[in-house]
Amino acid sequence: MSHARTHCGYRTGGLWRAAGVSFGLLVVGSGLALFAMLEFDERCTQGLTKGPGTFLRARNQAFPPATVCEFDQGEVVSFGGRVVPGALLWAALAVMVGCLFVALLAECLDPRPGSRLVVPMSREQKVVRTGTAFFVTGSVFLLFYALAAWRLFTGPSSACAAGGGWSAHPPRTLEYSFLPPQASCEYGSGLVLPMNPDWMASLATELAVPAALAGVGFVLAWRRRRAERDAAGSGAGHL
């Protein structure tokens, strides 16, 4: 009679699908919001976009992506900063983050059979599933981080001038950091601007969290499989 334990894993398919749909909605909504930001500040400056009172300044907010034109009696925002689109983007982000976190956390656990939330799963299947999650989340993090930080790796002290083809008066790098990947750039006119938009620097850092959690799940699954194989080998050696 076999006393081998039946291994299981949580049913996370629905969570992954919900996270995928939310991510798609987030990409589409953010794309529309970013498109609506194009030249929105210039229209405010030129008086093409009217606001309450005298125009003061324009600024960009990280999320939802939007340009905010400040007037002395109020504000006017682009598409992403309005109530309905902004609420939908925040809801999509909350659903995606919540489902992704719960799904990755579930992959770290080793549940016992007997619940409708679990399904039989071998140690090898668990390693493959957690390894796939780690590969996907890790690849997304590395690709996005490389996109945001490549100028820092060419030389942090001259990151602001990297890739710009400046023939004279290149921007100076006042300060920089690798996490988040950001630098303050001073141009010849005296204007100081960030190397990356705030939302890009923040997202490049935040993407490390699901990658790290997926990595923990993969390491735990691999160690459990190795421990089981070692125990099986030891038991066979005593026969």
Write the layout of secondary structure elements.
Blueprint: E1 8-10, H1 13-37, H2 40-45, E2 55-61, E3 66-71, E4 74-77, H3 83-108, E5 118-120, H4 123-153, E6 172-178, E7 181-186, E8 192-194, H5 198-206, H6 208-237
When the domains are counted, the total is 2
Task: Note the gap between the termini.
Answer: 16 Å
Shape: elongated
Mean pLDDT: 83
In N-to-C order, the SSE pattern is EHHEEEHEHEEEHH
- How much helical structure, as a percent, in the residues? 40-55%
What structural class do helix, strand and pairing data support?
alpha+beta
Number of strands: 8
Q: Please give the largest β-sheet.
A: 3 strands, antiparallel
Low-pLDDT stretches are none
Gyration radius from CA atoms, angstroms: 25 Å
Question: Count of helical segments?
Answer: 6
Describe this protein's structure.
- The chain crosses the membrane at residues 15-38, 87-106, 127-148, 199-222.
- Keywords: Membrane, Transmembrane, Transmembrane helix.
- The protein is an alpha+beta fold.
- It has two domains: 11-110; 121-239.
- 53% of the residues lie in helices and 16% in strands.
- The protein has helices at 13-37, 40-45, 83-108, 123-153, 198-206, 208-237, and strands spanning 8-10, 55-61, 66-71, 74-77, 118-120, 172-178, 181-186, 192-194.
- The strands form three sheets. The protein has a three-stranded antiparallel β-sheet with strand order 2-3-4.
- Helix 3 packs parallel to helix 6.
- The longest helix is centred in the middle third of the chain and has 31 residues, at 123-153.
- The two termini are 16 Å apart.
